[in-house]
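Please decode residue identities from the backbone states below.
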């Protein structure tokens, strides 16, 4: 990156696609902190024996700084008032010095008087009239001081240099912040689970997932309670449940959420109102977005149902807290517990109705189960995984240039005044420290600093400041003899960004605490807080600004990313509504065709829900609907084949992750080769490692059955037989069944 490129970027800065007001917040907060630190130093000059004009001018300057702090923390229309007060204060102080000969040579301390104000106007209001007005006022006052004669030019030139240095530094820091925000947004987008899917595919998956959840919570729940041997619900309750399931199969899909918020308490109570489970209630009344409230309510309902199913008669405790940053819901029971890690992947309750439901809105679900009971925890938003806070290439490039103004200022400072050291010694020390800064900047540009490298830089900064305090005499020198803090600021700017917030705060505390402690112990309280206060400001300012800008940029990128997600969600709502309606109608038409007659018979009383044959039919329909849902919206022939096998005595389980239609068509043809009869036999189908694996257990397959699937059999064992069908994307669903490689002979 050349200086020409840097100049073009600074003058025509490219801002991210969000409001300028948002970008300014880190700078406003940082400048407010710097102004607050400078007010005590300016206030020490306000003493009773000062000439009236100088006293009035200092009061105006302090007042302008107070207004600047207020403007930064709570933006309002105070820019002109603080500019006028600052200009008036400058005129009064300079005029008072020129008119009062007893004050000696006029002092030009524009860095202390107006440094923060100039930085505020130049960075945050560069195109308005306040900056030119104050700049012209400053130049006229400086001309008056210069023409007065008897002026010590070295401190005045240094004051002007160190007025310009923070402005240049903040201009470069602005580019770093823009790059950090852009990279932060890009990182968050790249980290999304569905970022690799296009919009249409993602919407289809979302609609399909919501359809599966609704089916599980209504139709499958009803069939499971009819078919379960442990179910103790009276026949009247089961008939009422069948009527509700039938109504659900005729309903329109739930509308896409509107922007109105919903209370957490209302969402949870509505979700579990129809569940016959004893509940202990401890819920906050915080508000949530409607889609989030619906997701948490549905996941809570499924967790409560699990308590009812697996711990009949147990009492569940629902505890929910809706905080500013995170919402947490816990559903606890005192049952015997289970092994959550061994829970079958093909089961839908935990995985699809709880975990997937929370993930669909950016939340998370966890299950902890033991001998004392089970706890299901729902959190929204999901806890962010720990990050290394790595900074991208563009931000590192600008960051490497950012200390340049301070390097130039420190060079001017050590050239003009280096009390306590000879010129060669001061030059040698400056060169060593500047070389350390340059090496660190090069390392930042190429790959960034590691934590231990950043710690070394911070410790070098503290040691350098203490050394500078030792080689000067606080009684005979002024604050300009402390020129090391400018180089220390360079080290801070390079060391703090890219750290975890706890590490960055620890580094900042070490540097700032070491500088303050060393100054108080070596120079004394008066020098530290009065004559050499600017040196401490030179350390504290980059610490504060770097922390605020770096972590403010991270906060802004997260806020902007969330805002963009909300806008995208609104744009998708109309498209989702149409797609949801069409898919919903097609699926429930299919579900009504498969289960409508059975549910009607049970609801009307023509079928006894406690009869064993009714229970078995409910179990078969439950399995059939689960298979259809896993294959939906693809070909359902495999579900029909599995249903036929169950009616012949097979126990079949389909665990399909992202089923491949062509492969499942071949599996369907393979199962069709099995002769009828399957009493005592178990078939488990799963997809993993690029293939569909069929495992036959229970009663061993007959010779005729093995002969039908022999070319695909890979294992024949007394306890199980296994066949494997590799995935294919080039074969159509109607392709002929062709063996994929040699199998193990069934007679082996």
């Amino acid at each position: 990156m050349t200086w020409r490129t840097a100049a073009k970027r600074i003058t025509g800065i490219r801002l991210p696609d969000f409001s300028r007001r948002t970008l300014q917040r880190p700078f406003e907060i940082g400048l407010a902190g710097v102004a607050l630190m400078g007010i005590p130093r300016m206030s020490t000059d306000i003493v009773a024996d000062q000439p009236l004009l100088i006293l009035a001018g200092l009061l105006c300057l302090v007042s302008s700084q107070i207004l600047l702090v207020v403007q930064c923390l709570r933006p309002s229309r105070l820019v002109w008032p603080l500019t006028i007060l600052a200009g008036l204060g400058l005129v009064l102080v300079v005029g008072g010095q020129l008119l009062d000969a007893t004050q000696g040579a006029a002092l030009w301390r524009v860095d202390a008087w107006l440094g923060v104000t100039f930085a505020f106007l130049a960075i945050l209001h560069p195109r308005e009239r306040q900056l030119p007005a104050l700049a012209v006022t400053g130049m006229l006052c400086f001309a008056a001081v210069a023409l007065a004669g008897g002026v010590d030019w070295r401190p005045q030139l240094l004051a002007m240099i160190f007025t310009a240095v923070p402005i240049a530094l903040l201009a470069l820091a602005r580019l770093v912040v823009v790059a950090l925000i852009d990279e932060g947004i890009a990182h968050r987008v790249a980290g999304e689970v569905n970022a690799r899917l296009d919009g249409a595919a993602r919407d289809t998956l979302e609609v399909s997932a919501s359809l599966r959840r609704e089916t599980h919570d209504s139709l499958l729940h009803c069939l499971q309670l009819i078919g379960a041997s442990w179910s103790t619900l009276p026949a009247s309750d089961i008939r009422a449940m069948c009527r509700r399931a039938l109504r659900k199969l005729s309903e329109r899909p739930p509308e896409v959420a509107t922007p109105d918020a919903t209370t957490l308490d209302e969402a949870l109570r509505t979700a579990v109102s129809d569940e016959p489970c004893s509940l202990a209630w401890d819920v906050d009344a915080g508000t949530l977005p409607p889609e989030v409230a619906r997701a948490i309510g549905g996941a809570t309902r499924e967790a409560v149902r699990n308590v009812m199913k697996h711990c009949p008669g147990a009492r569940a405790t629902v505890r929910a807290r809706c905080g500013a940053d995170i919402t947490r819901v816990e559903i606890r029971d005192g049952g015997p517990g289970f092994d959550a890690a061994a829970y079958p992947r093909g089961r839908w309750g935990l995985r699809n109705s709880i975990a997937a439901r929370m993930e669909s809105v950016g939340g998370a679900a966890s299950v902890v189960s033991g001998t004392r009971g089970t706890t299901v925890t729902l959190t929204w938003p999901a806890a962010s995984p720990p990050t290394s806070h790595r900074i991208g290439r563009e931000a590192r490039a600008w960051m490497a240039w950012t200390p340049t103004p301070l390097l130039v200022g420190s060079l001017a400072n050590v050239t003009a005044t280096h009390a306590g050291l000879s010129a060669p010694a001061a030059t040698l020390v400056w060169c060593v420290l500047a070389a350390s800064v340059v090496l660190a900047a090069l390392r930042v540009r190429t790959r960034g600093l590691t934590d231990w490298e950043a710690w070394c830089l911070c410790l070098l900064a503290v040691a350098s400041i203490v050394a500078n305090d030792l080689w000067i005499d606080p009684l005979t020198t002024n604050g300009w003899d402390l020129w090391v803090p400018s180089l220390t600021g360079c080290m801070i700017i390079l060391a703090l960004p890219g750290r975890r917030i706890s590490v960055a705060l620890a580094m900042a505390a070490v540097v700032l605490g070491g500088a303050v402690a060393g100054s108080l112990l070596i120079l004394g309280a008066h020098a530290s807080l009065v004559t050499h206060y600017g040196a401490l400001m030179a350390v504290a300012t980059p610490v504060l600004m770097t922390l605020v800008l770096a972590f403010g940029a991270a906060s802004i990128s997260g806020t902007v990313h969330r805002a963009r997600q909300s806008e995208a969600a609104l744009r998708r709502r109309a498209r989702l509504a149409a797609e949801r309606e069409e898919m919903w109608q097609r699926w429930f038409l299919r579900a009504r065709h498969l289960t409508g007659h059975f549910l009607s018979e049970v609801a009307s009383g023509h079928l006894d829900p406690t009869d064993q044959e009714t229970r078995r039919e409910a179990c078969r329909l439950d399995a059939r609907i689960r298979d259809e849902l896993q294959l939906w919206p693809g070909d359902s022939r495999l579900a029909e084949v599995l249903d036929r096998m169950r009616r012949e005595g097979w126990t079949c389980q389909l665990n399909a992750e992202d089923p491949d239609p062509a492969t499942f068509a071949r599996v369907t043809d393979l199962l069709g080769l099995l002769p009828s009869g399957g009493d005592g036999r178990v078939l488990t189908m799963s997809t993993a490692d690029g293939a569909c694996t069929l495992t036959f257990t229970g009663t061993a397959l007959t010779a005729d059955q093995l002969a039908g699937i022999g070319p695909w059999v890979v294992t024949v064992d007394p306890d199980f037989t296994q066949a494997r069908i590799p995935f294919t994307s080039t074969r159509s669903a109607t392709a002929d069944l062709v063996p994929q490689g040699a199998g193990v002979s069934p007679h082996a």
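Observation: The longest strand covers residues 315-322.
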